[in-house]
Design goal:
binds iron/sulfur cluster, 9 strands, eight-stranded parallel barrel, single chain, 368 residues
Length: 368
């Protein structure tokens, strides 16, 4: 695992001492540079850069327009199972939460797919909890076979798979992968994943690299902001992305910055990423990674989504349901987390167009 090994050395980097030395002149100098170093990225994440949000926003918009034009891709998540053997302290699907678990049949998956397709979606992200005995790779194969004729891009956000399993799934229509490390802080990672296979930090960390080795077209990574110091997680996410991009330049890499939302249970996040810092971090990612896609989820409230959509975002989920089979008439199940933006896809199209961008359902042409 070349990229993962290369990334691991960044975990001992002294982030705090670099950030504490950043002055306003350093931020101004970085904003004039063509190519940024990891230290420059930290400069943009630093408190000193907060005074330059407007300059960062102008630069970010310019970079995004150059590399992505004015298109913003709309996609939908589809939860197909909420069975899970892990006990992630921040998640509504964790094993000790007692509620009637469910897994969609292939017919129910088809019906949900038809609803999403009728709304115009061409890109769908399929999600499950971590329960390989209930949702094995064979189930994913069947699910992809059902949905492949309806969509242009199908991606998974499920438990980490082996390289050959991603290869198998690619053969039946898998196009992309989303995998969050949750937090790169090893000690906190261990605490918030008390038991279950997800406790294996390294196996999860290697997942995007296994997806790249399997030849997946696009892969999105990120951290869940709220678990650990956001500055650290933002920096390590960027270093992870940087090493993956270096070793696998053929992959369309993406990043997302989900912030923690309330879920079933009593977990209170130790850290917060304020709205202002959230915008600053998003701009820093765009300036440091001009060609990387940035995904914005419905965890964010409508007013915040409206602010950041024109600033560098390229992919937006819309009309999302985070409960299993949420797009059909089935009785409602519990959501994995609260959706903060419940606007319909038609409303989102209007919002995006009103900002001067083109809402699109398909951003590539190709045969799987
Ligand atoms: S975050 Fe994923 S693995 Fe953890 S409890 Fe929730 S569904 Fe399971």
């Amino acid at each position: 695992m070349k990229a993962t090994e290369a990334f691991l050395s960044w975990l001992t980097y002294d982030i705090e001492s670099v950030v504490s030395r950043v002055k306003k002149e350093d931020v101004q100098r970085v904003l004039r540079k063509e190519r940024l170093t990891p230290e420059d990225f930290l400069c943009l994440l630093s408190p000193a850069a907060e005074a330059f949000l407007e300059d960062m926003a102008i630069l970010s918009q310019k970079i995004t327009a150059k590399h992505f034009g004015r298109a913003i891709l709309l996609f939908a998540p589809l939860y197909v199972s909420d069975y899970c053997q892990n006990r992630c302290v921040y998640c509504g699907f964790r094993a000790q939460n007692t509620f009637a678990r469910t897994k969609l049949s292939l017919e129910e998956i088809r019906k949900n797919g038809e609803v999403l397709s009728s709304k115009g979606f061409r890109h769908v992200l399929l999600l499950t909890g971590d329960a390989p005995s209930i949702t094995p790779v064979e189930f994913f194969e069947d699910m992809l076979r059902v949905l492949h004729p309806m969509f242009d891009s199908l991606a998974l956000e499920v438990y980490p798979l082996k390289t050959d399993e991603y290869v198998r799934l690619k053969q039946v229509g898998l196009d992309g992968l989303t995998i969050y490390q949750e937090t790169y802080e090893r000690k906190i990672y261990d605490e918030v994943h008390p038991t279950g296979p997800k406790k294996d930090y390294l196996w999860r960390l290697e997942t995007p690299e296994r997806g790249a080795m399997a030849g997946l077209r696009w892969i999105t990574i990120g951290a869940l902001y709220g678990l650990a110091d956001p500055l650290h997680d933002a920096f390590w996410t960027a270093m992870h992305l940087m090493t993956l991009k270096k070793y696998y330049p053929e992959v369309e890499w993406g990043v997302s910055l989900p912030r923690m939302n309330p879920a079933e249970g009593d977990f209170v996040p130790k850290y917060t990423l304020s709205d202002r810092r959230f915008v600053q971090y998003l701009l820093a990612f765009r300036i440091f990674f001009p060609t990387v896609g940035i995904t914005l989820s419905t965890r964010e409230r409508p007013y915040m989504r409206d602010i950041v959509i024109p600033l560098g975002v390229t992919k937006v989920s819309a009309e999302s349901h985070t409960e299993v089979g949420g797009y059909t008439e089935k009785p409602c199940h519990i959501p994995q987390f609260e959706v903060a933006d419940t606007r319909s896809v038609e409303e989102m199209k209007r919002v995006i167009a009103h900002k001067g961008f083109d809402p699109v359902f398909k951003d590539w042409v190709g045969a799987i």
